[in-house]
Amino acid sequence: MFKGFAGKASVLAASTALLIAGCAGGSSRVMPGFAPDSAQFAAPAFSVDAPKPSIKTLTWGKSPAGTAGTAIKAAKLTLTAKGSNGKALTGTYPAPITLANSDKSGATTLLINGKPASKKNLVTKSTDKITLKYTGLAIAPVTFTASSKGVKKPAKAAFAPKLAAIVYTGSLVSNAPEIDLPNATGGTTATFTATQAGWTGSPFNKAFTQAFAAVSGFTNNCATAYTITPASGAAGTSFTVSIVANAPAGECLLTLGGGAGQTKSVLLTYATTGVVINGTRAPNR
Length: 285
Prior knowledge:
Helix content: 10-25%
Number of strands: 19
Number of domains: 2
């Protein structure tokens, strides 16, 4: 009954001896079925996406100079977009930039690549060309605004064309505009002209407003003594002052109002006795 066991024992012993002999001989061969799978122990592969750039600040360059009465076809405007590192962004911007204009007169237009800026026409890359078109109309300073997603404080720039004063041509007394009626020849009408670059004349043809005020120390005859043609708000540069029938003697200060708040005052006087010559005032004024 021990013969079979003895045979199996001898086979096992022989196999063990061969394995020990192989190890003793320095063999590096690994037994089949025991080779480790390197892929199972490899470190997992992953990548970190670089943060996407964003616009953090917007800055306008120096605004172009302008003068009322002189049109500008296309003055260059510079707008710089910077990232979180403070460096200017180039190429296509991560978000579009919207331009806005406070001017409601139509005298100024912001252009992007030759077309008016709008909600549909935006600045999308650093190579976009921004220009200003100006008709020359006399206007108060206007503000241009640039804004974009991620920019907390929109960039603002002012355009303030140099304004021209109202120019008066007519009778002067002590170098100040004054219309005295009757005039030196006894007439009851007088004329003067008033112009303003960027307001009157082609292509603007804007009108002056007329305001009247009493003169301290003299009878106020503003409402009852004078007719002025053209009237307030009517376009024109040549004005005629006429005396109304049975007008009371007195004085009135006429103030013309032009573009962007420019004004010019003209003293109107009327005497019922005597004639005012070279500014000499009649006693009943």
